[in-house]
Amino acid sequence: MASSMRISRLLSRSFLSASTTPLFSRGGSGALGAGLSKFSTAAAIEEPIKPPVKVEHTQLLIDGKFVDAATGKTFPTLDPRTGDVISHVAEGDHEDVDRAVAAARKAFDHGPWPKMTAYERQRILLRAADLFEKHNDELAALETWDNGKPYEQSAQIEIPMLVRLFRYYAGWADKIHGLTVPADGPYHVQTLHEPIGVAGQIIPWNFPLVMFAWKVGPALACGNTIVLKTAEQTPLSALYASKLLHEAGLPPGVLNVISGFGPTAGAAIASHMDIDKLAFTGSTETGKVVLELAARSNLKPVTLELGGKSPFIVCEDADVDEAVELAHFALFFNQGQCCCAGSRTFVHERVYDEFIEKAKARALKRAVGDPFKGGIEQGPQVTYPYV
């Protein structure tokens, strides 16, 4: 609870300020402004704020190069504020997954990454973290533009978390040790931890760069190579972050990024015979499909992080004002698009009426609007919530 209170206060300082000063200059057309009015609580219709970043990378990343999809197809990634197209992104399919897996396999079997000393891998990951920190504002702007979450959340919480996570995993690179095991008789028994090989990874749309860090960071620290599929709703920030990783010295083929859709690119990764390990974050229903595809192929081990309903419990001796604020944060943080959102609230009957009254008042005060404006708590939904 103490940790939750600290997080809530930190976010409150960032998001709940009374300031409505725009962070960036306004831009866009009247049509865009009309789209914005659908979610804005402002009395007057305002045009969307122009994001201060240029989209540079929209192709697939395979073997260290940005390339078009084999079919030449693209798909639009949309501004959730308006539904307008931000850019057209290469649409990867099974042929592209095959190319990416072949590059990852070559990089693992014959490339320098698994053979590097752990210290050398650590240095590259630390350089990447420094570049993420240097490009904090660009990464945050891409994240907000593609996802709809408040820019202050992206810039002050999530990109610093991306940096911290990569530094954390970099620190593990030279601290993964085997064991010597006592044995009966004149024998020497030891365990040896080695990279598993090619890791397939599928990340969701709600926290694109944090999920990128959680998947990519530990796999790279251990010496694996990767084929990563981004969510079709939010492909842009991972491509930019991957470009920075290569600037930091990541060898070609170690990290390959496929933008595309679940039934095509995602299914190809889950069922690929030359992928050694699979990690998926998303809905429970899709997780079942991913697990089945992995089992029907080469029975690759699978790690699943799926959606759920997390209870928030308010006891009779609770500070009701504090409980209301924490419950509000637990449910509405990130537009409510969290795997562990506090979407069920249990309140003791003795404080129930007071809690309901204050919770309603807090919800009515929630600042909804353009996520690039200062003081906004909630931008547009990028897609439907987890179930």
TrEMBL record:
Q: Which GO terms describe its molecular function?
A: aldehyde dehydrogenase (NAD+) activity
What reaction does this enzyme carry out catalytically?
Answer: an aldehyde + NAD(+) + H2O = a carboxylate + NADH + 2 H(+)
Keyword tRNA processing part of the UniProt annotation: no
The record, for InterPro entries, names:
Ald_DH/histidinol_DH, Ald_DH_C, Ald_DH_CS_CYS, Ald_DH_CS_GLU, Ald_DH_N, Aldehyde_DH_dom
Per the Swiss-Prot or TrEMBL record, the active site comprises: 305
What is this enzyme's EC? 1.2.1.3
* Domain annotation Aldehyde dehydrogenase: ranges: 66-383
Name it: aldehyde dehydrogenase (NAD(+))
